[in-house]
Amino acid sequence: MSDNSINNLKQAITKLRTQFDNEDLDLDAKKTAYLGKKGSFNELSKEIKNVSNENKREAGKLLNELKQYLQKNLVDNSQQKTEWTDLTLPGIKQKKGHIHPISQAIEEISDIFQKIGFTRVRYPEVDWDFYAFEALNMPSDHPARDEWETFFVKTPQNKKMGKMVLTPHTSNGQVREMERLKSKPPIRMINVARCYRRQQDVTHTQMFHQFEGLVVDKGITIQHLKGTLDYFAEKFYGPGTKSRIRPFHFQFTEPSFEVDFSCHICKGTGLITDEHGDKNKCSFCKSGWHEVGGAGMVHPNVLKAGGIDPQEYTGFAFGWGVERTYTLKEGLNIDDIRYFYSGESRFLKQF
Ligand code: DAH
Question: How buried is 66 (Cβ within 10 angstroms: 0-12 exposed, 13-18 middle, 19+ buried)?
Fold first, then answer.
């Protein structure tokens, strides 16, 4: 055989493939025609005996590839015929994340106050002792400070400002806001921020959120405070929700109050009527009310610390925890508040 033998074989293979690709036979007939005992492939394979010894190896490889090609296409075609797509099936849903429940609550709270002219602000989470305590009528050795379980930061001390702290409440924003507005009321601020305290248990996380309201102007009275609380109660907890203020003590307000909202489950009555008409104690609240936080009329010393004359101006302030305010609204009996910050998606995706 001449050296052309391998080229002849290659040409024959190409011819067969072209023919195969263009052949319009049904599958079984095509199988027999190409891969059957007497089919084209076996016929062509016989040509290998004409190939010179040195090219036999390559010839074998080429024939092998041809056989695989034929087999693959015959099988693939058969699959195409039996496989079908049901276009009426619903699509596969992509998993979607959502805003964290506490961020949702912050947005809602801010919106409610912004609608009545409050400006949303944020102040440093690592702040001077001065803004967190001193300016709020709590000198450095005042025992009231103990309530705040504060984290102090190891930094050189500033003569006027003192040490640095992780803010244990959003009240640090009060004097900062007075300074931002160059001690010129009117002031209507809502400060929402992270806070930190050395406490961790089922109802406390070391990091949590508060929102702080501050209003300073001429002629501001407790009535304005009460009106604002009632407005928030209705908007956030729903129509009919009432607020209640009880005397309390804070260093930075005088008078000071604790603020309660009426329970929206038992409508402030403390009782729930069951399906037999019997009245039972509401299991969600204590006697119809929920305590949410503190409030009061801004202490003259705080106004002075912010450069405002207490003879000319008065103000009110309030400060509550976002987590608590929110879980009350949703009627969530969460047995461990730390779930919010666990990054546990099975918990978070419920909101
Ligand atoms: N800062 C207080 C706390 O963390 C809450 C508070 C009470 C804020 C009375 C106020 C207020 O603005 O007037 O417990």
Answer: buried
- Spatial distance between the Cα atoms of 79 and 114, rounded to a whole number of angstroms: 63
CA–centroid distance, 133 to ligand 1, in Å, is: 12
Per-residue pLDDT tens digits for 153-210: 998 889 999 999 999 999 999 999 999 999 999 999 999 999 999 998 888 999 999 9
pLDDT digit string, tens, across residues 323-349? 999 988 877 778 888 899 988 888 888
Q: What is the pTM of this model?
A: 0.73
172 alpha carbon – ligand 1 mean position (Å) = 10
Instruction: Map out the domains of the chain with their CATH numbers.
Output: 6-82 (no CATH), 101-348 (3.30.930.10)
Ligand 1 pocket test: which of 136, 195, 250 has the largest number of ligand atoms within 8 Å of its C-beta?
250
Please indicate whether residue 293, judged by its CB atom, sits closer than 6 Å to ligand 1: yes
Neighbours of 319 (CB within 10 A): 25
Core vs surface per residue 205-218: b (16+ CB within 10 A) or e = beebbbbbbbbbee
Is 328 a pocket residue for ligand 1 (Cβ < 6 Å)? no
- Residue 279 has φ and ψ, to the nearest 5°, of -95, 130
- The closest-lying atom of ligand 1 relative to the alpha carbon of residue 316 is 13
